[in-house]
TrEMBL record:
Family recorded in the similarity comment: Belongs to the ExbD/TolR family.
Protein name per its UniProtKB record: Biopolymer transport protein ExbD/TolR
Gene Ontology terms: biological process: protein transport
Regions that span the bilayer: 20-37
Membrane topology: Single-pass membrane protein; Single-pass type II membrane protein
Main subcellular location: membrane
Localization, UniProt: Cell membrane
Keyword Ubl conjugation (UniProt): no
GO molecular function, one term: transmembrane transporter activity
A matching Pfam family: ExbD
Organism per entry: Rubripirellula amarantea
Statement: the UniProt record of this protein carries the keyword Protein biosynthesis: no
Keywords annotated in UniProt: Cell membrane, Membrane, Protein transport, Transmembrane, Transmembrane helix, Transport
């Protein structure tokens, strides 16, 4: 009978270098792609005063800007709070100034006026940019007058 000795045994070792490299690569990936989000529950909600049946402030509700387009994507008309403006962006800016006044909008506390843009699906992007430019402010000599900074978009109409 032949007894096998310990000299024929091969020692199997795992090479840990490549596994450690992968772990560090994953760690670096997750650290670099980590995004810090705002803390939940930090809402800036403005509630109406109790029993206030007076006229509402224009900054309480978002202004609604409707941009209509033809089949080719050209702007055919604009309406700000159901007031028809044609296709004149200067008239749009004038109406915004008359509605909110020339006071500067509020900063980060959320008290400034808000605009909701409602467009036709086929409207060209350049008209949306011109509308945003018209309502966001203008230059008065060397001074920049800010009008509306909070702009949101409604779902495009088909």
């Amino acid at each position: 009978m032949k007894i096998r000795g310990g000299k024929d045994k091969e020692k199997n070792e795992l090479n840990m270098t490549s596994m450690i490299d992968i772990v560090f690569l994953l760690l670096i990936f997750f650290v670099m792609t980590f995004k810090i989000v705002e803390q939940e529950g930090d809402f800036s909600v403005r509630m109406p005063l109790a029993g206030g049946a007076g006229a509402a402030d224009i900054t309480d509700l978002p202004l609604k800007l409707r941009l209509r387009a033809d089949g080719d994507g050209k702007l055919t008309g604009m309406a700000l709070n159901e007031i028809d403006l044609g296709v004149d962006f200067d008239k749009l800016r004038g109406n915004v100034v008359s509605l909110i006044g020339s006071t500067a909008p509020a900063g980060d506390d959320g008290d400034g006026p808000e605009l909701e843009i409602d467009t036709d699906y086929q409207l060209r992007y350049q008209y949306v940019i011109e509308a945003i430019t018209a309502v966001s402010g203008y230059k008065d000599g060397d001074q920049v007058v800010k009008l509306i900074e909070k702009i949101k978009f409604a779902k495009p109409r088909r």
